[in-house]
Amino acid sequence: MRNLVISSILSVVLLSAGWLGASGATLLVALVPLLYICSRPIGFWRCALWMGATMALWTILTVWWIWYAAPIGAIAATLIDVVMLGGVLMLYRWASRRLSRVLSYVILVSAWIGFEWVYTIGQVSFPWLVLGNGFANDIWAVQWYSTTGVFGGSLWVLVANILIWEALRRRSVWSGAWAAVWVLVPIAVSLWMLRTYEMPSQKMVKVTVLQPNIDPYNEKFVLSQQAQTANLVDLVNHSPADADFVVMPETAIDDELWEGRMHTSPSLDRLQSLLRERMPGSQWIVGATTYKHYEPGEKISRTARQNYYGGFWYDVYNSALAIDSTGVVQVHHKSKLVAGAEMMPFYNITKHLNFLIIDLGGVSGQFGVDSVHRVFTSPQGVVTAAAVCYESVYGEDFSQFVLGGAQLMLVITNDGWWRNTPGYRQHFSYSRLRAIESRRAVGRSANTGISGFIDPQGRVLQRMGWQQRGTLTAQLPLNDRLTFYTRNGDYIGRAAFYIFLVCMIGAPVYMARVRRKRG
Prior knowledge:
The chain is an alpha/beta fold. The chain contains 17 helices and 13 strands. Strand 4 and strand 5 (313-324) form a beta hairpin.
């Protein structure tokens, strides 16, 4: 019993380190204690209890802060990890007693990564604890994410744990040597890539990011939009007049911003006037809540709402706007919504539970989504894109902007909903992984949290911390080249899922052959 308790606690600590500010290198041995528990002669349900408890404690320790923004999200994330990841480990335990050792390990690796991938693409989606994300602060070790993405990191972690466990179980020097090779070679490759990488172009642009520092709980919906706009205007007036881009956070504008007649928005009109007066050659990226009105007879979306007084249908979007001196407004609608905060999964079934969705952007209820990852073109011909908050967590979705031509990536967010917790730091660190995967510089504007700049190798150039108000300006490089990962997306996740299906189809055949040989 004592050994089981120690093993479980040790695994929780080693799994959590990368998300709590320490190095993610502990992930390379974090599952070894769980493989030890699976090997012990204890009952199925007793083992399942240890697996589930370990996954629950890991989830709670690393993402407990979700509770501040969406209590239902925190509960759901914990339950899903317990059932799915605990289930993967129990499936491995079952396989290790009935199948060959190699096949049981293949099932473990493919099932774990396959689950991570499905959790990324599903309507119930929270891929925060993908194992590869644990290296977000160890960019020196994972420069090869430009080829594999974070699922390559998950593969690295899982195989390392298996090889180290085998070395310990067999007490074999050769097994230990193979484990050392598997761990050290990717690090050596990463260090070489970090040292030798060169940008394909020397073209630079000057980017300013704003951090207005408005408390989302006590100020966002108390202060008038006029006062919040005045805050932004003051920050712009303290920014360099020759900036090519000025970036403002998610939902910086939250007045009646109807698409098709945006000129009626006092806040947007004030910003456009200031832009023409002070920075006529620049482009500003502004987070906003926008509305789309459906004309009679026009096909409405599944997320549309009906106005109770006028009877018309409309959609609400969490959007990024690009404005410049031409008067043209380019719009991107956030495509990845936060379950339990901005949307209810399987909306056709759960639409009557909208009351569970809390207000995270000025409008409660189901938000609309866009199937297109829209990019912005500046008057100078520079192509950028703005990932809105949660979109920066998804590597393949982030890559869609780059495939659309983005030479520079921007992230606009409001991480204040999570208060002063590890949440906003983790969210910032994920932008470092996106920079490596796409080899794009990233400018990040947060309402509060961490605003800053990241170079294409994931190194932080500047940052502004929690509850600070101000601006940051940096020269950022442009890049037109596509990485292998950008072109191919989460191919490791897809491959793992299909390998897992093949294994589960083939397992009964394997067991039948074994029984025939024994019989």
